[in-house]
Amino acid sequence: MQQDIERVLITEEQIREKIKELGAQISEDFRGKDLVVVGILKGAALFCADLFRAISIPAELDFMRITSYGAATKSTGVHRVLLDLDYTLEGRHVLIVEDIVDTGLTIKFLKEYLSQRGPASLSVAALLDKPSRRKVEVTIDYRGFEVPDFFVVGMGLDYAEKYRNLRDICILKPEIYKS
Ligand code: XMP
Ligand code: MG
């Protein structure tokens, strides 16, 4: 795996520190509130697990899985829910946890979808933000790092289902993306 890496963008240590900060901020903001943390599979699974452990207030953990139609490295804006929450969100505070916000279409879809269930609030945490590719405006309430317009892998992010277990956020060698 290591031989496929061109460059490390964000190190494991930087990620660990950032998650600690985000967890502390979330704990402060939602103290005394009924918080449901919803990780978006599969990409956000690792970030969500670490972020959830960094939250020091009572909270519920759940996951959704959605798929977007289209090419492997692009988001089309057309989504389908593969795994859903099977209970009401009425009056509860929902925190959506994503790996990366790219075009913003996935977060836009999720916010519209979940807002129909009457949550008291709907916020977004994303490990990475690629603002240069945004197609729709979205608010990221808890943001880890801004990244340039490269396809990145590691810490849950994949290329063709590989590299999710890299501990740093990395750019692969160009020949890997082509093959
Ligand atoms: P949108 O465009 O809807 O995209 O904001 C969010 C989803 O697109 C995927 N994505 C990436 N996955 N490296 C990845 O491994 C990237 O650089 C990248 N950019 C976008 C990802 O699945 C994310 O949830
Ligand atoms: Mg994803």
TrEMBL record:
Pathway annotation from the record: Purine metabolism; IMP biosynthesis via salvage pathway; IMP from hypoxanthine: step 1/1; Purine metabolism; GMP biosynthesis via salvage pathway; GMP from guanine: step 1/1
GO biological process: GMP salvage; guanine salvage; hypoxanthine metabolic process; IMP salvage; purine ribonucleoside salvage
MF terms in GO: guanine phosphoribosyltransferase activity; hypoxanthine phosphoribosyltransferase activity; magnesium ion binding; nucleotide binding
InterPro entries, alphabetized: HGPRT, Hxn_phspho_trans, PRTase-like, PRTase_dom
EC number: 2.4.2.8
Cofactor(s) this protein cannot do without: Mg(2+)
GO cellular component, one term: cytosol
Assigned protein family: Belongs to the purine/pyrimidine phosphoribosyltransferase family.
Protein's recorded name: Hypoxanthine phosphoribosyltransferase
